[in-house]
Every structure is written in structure tokens, then in C-alpha cells.
Amino acid sequence: PTRRSSDLVDTTGAGDGFIGCLLYHLSKDDIHASDLDGLSEQQLKSYLDMCNKFCSISVTKEGAIASYPSR
Questions:
Q1: 42-58: per-residue pLDDT in tens?
Q2: What is the DSSP string of 4-31?
Q3: Quick one: which of 26, 44, 47, 55 is 20 to 30 A from 35 by CA?
Q4: Residue pair 71/30 in contact by the 8 Å Cβ criterion
């Protein structure tokens, strides 16, 4: 679902959560730094969409780690 700015509570940790989410998914798919140039636009978009969704949920709650969704 699309988040509105009125849903925003706290941006603490949002950037860290974005990078953590990206690294988690790259690791899960066994993608290494040397593989990044070979990612298709669709693969990259899929990773970035997941990270944006993760962060859009995390900013609706107070704090950093405590606001991160678990699934």
C-alpha cells in the first residue's frame, strides 16, 4: 500500500534499514559485489521495491530497529 506523509512517525534508522534490507536480499540470492554489474534492470528494481516497502513500514513507528518489520 502507498504510504502518506501523514503516516510518518520517525525516520530514525530508515537509511540503515534500506541498506540492510538490500544487503539481506543480495546475500539471500547469493549475489556478490562482482555480480552487481550483471543484474538486470528488473532484478535491481525488484530489490529496490522491496527496500522501499521495508522503509515505508519502518517510518510509521518510533525508533530504529524496533520499527523494522520482521517479514
A1: 999 999 999 999 998 89
A2: PGGG----TTHHHHHHHHHHHHHHHTT-
A3: 55
A4: no
56 Cβ contact partners less than 8 Å away, ≥ 6 residues apart = 3
Give residues with Cβ within 8 angstroms of 68, minimum separation 6. 13, 17, 20, 54, 58
CA 6 to chain centroid, in Å, comes to: 20
Cβ–Cβ under 8 Å, residues 46 and 55? no
pTM (whole model) above 0.70:
yes
How far apart (Å, rounded) are the C-alpha atoms in residues 54 and 58?
A: 6
- C-alpha radius of gyration, the chain, whole number: 13
As given in the structure block, the three cell numbers for residue 23 are 544487503
Q: What number of other Cβ atoms are within 10 A of residue 46's Cβ?
A: 14
